[in-house]
Amino acid sequence: MRPTDVKRLNRQWRRSTEGRLALIVESVTQPYNLGSILRTCATLGVDRLWLAGNSADPLDPKVGKTALGTAAKVDHVRAGSTAEALSAARADGYRVVALELATGAVPLHVAPLEGDVCLAVGAEDHGCSPALLAGADALTYIPQIGRVGSLNVAVATAIALAEARRREWASSGGETDAPIGK
Ligand SMILES: C[S@@+](CC[C@H](N)C(=O)[O-])C[C@H]1O[C@@H](n2cnc3c(N)ncnc32)[C@H](O)[C@@H]1O
């Protein structure tokens, strides 16, 4: 497809999308991971990104290697703490759903992702903090069948954001369901 065709297709999907998505990133320290997360946020229309803990700086040139210019397209704010990020997300009307392989988490395909949802992801080394797990409205995990401990945080973020969008799109149907160009 030509770039203009992709732009037209993206506009069509934007018109079919009402639910608001946001994201809390807690102590994701690797710039390439944050850059990849920012690119996914820009692609899937995340309205706001809260950076909690010691997350990398979106303006770090290494972030730009994977963000490819998309950092400027995502409204991101530095939250003083995880608790502040959680209350800011709630004050903006989001249900906070933290992604973690943790006690009480439900599999992603049955997670409460309808409506305005703020997903939250944790650090590469130790995952979501106890404060984030306790403060979220719900916990969800991406089922794994390989002999692997966890997904890369940027990949987990992309899977969950895409699932949140897929839920709304699957229930609405319409012209967007047709193959491209038909
Ligand atoms: C690399 S993982 C952290 C792994 C860490 N070693 C641990 O044991 O908690 C970083 C983040 O990615 C997300 N993540 C990775 N795999 C996941 C999965 N299968 N389900 C849900 N979240 C996942 C979580 O938000 C997690 O905090």
TrEMBL record:
<keyword id="KW-0808">Transferase</keyword>
<keyword id="KW-0489">Methyltransferase</keyword>
<dbReference type="GO" id="GO:0003723">
    <property type="term" value="F:RNA binding"/>
</dbReference>
<dbReference type="GO" id="GO:0005829">
    <property type="term" value="C:cytosol"/>
</dbReference>
<dbReference type="Pfam" id="PF00588">
    <property type="entry name" value="SpoU_methylase"/>
</dbReference>
<dbReference type="InterPro" id="IPR001537">
    <property type="entry name" value="SpoU_MeTrfase"/>
</dbReference>
<dbReference type="GO" id="GO:0008173">
    <property type="term" value="F:RNA methyltransferase activity"/>
</dbReference>
<dbReference type="GO" id="GO:0006396">
    <property type="term" value="P:RNA processing"/>
</dbReference>
<feature type="domain" description="tRNA/rRNA methyltransferase SpoU type">
    <location>
        <begin position="21"/>
        <end position="161"/>
    </location>
</feature>
<dbReference type="InterPro" id="IPR029028">
    <property type="entry name" value="Alpha/beta_knot_MTases"/>
</dbReference>
<dbReference type="InterPro" id="IPR029026">
    <property type="entry name" value="tRNA_m1G_MTases_N"/>
</dbReference>
<protein>
    <submittedName>
        <fullName>tRNA (Guanosine-2'-O-)-methyltransferase</fullName>
    </submittedName>
</protein>
<dbReference type="GO" id="GO:0032259">
    <property type="term" value="P:methylation"/>
</dbReference>
<dbReference type="InterPro" id="IPR004441">
    <property type="entry name" value="rRNA_MeTrfase_TrmH"/>
</dbReference>
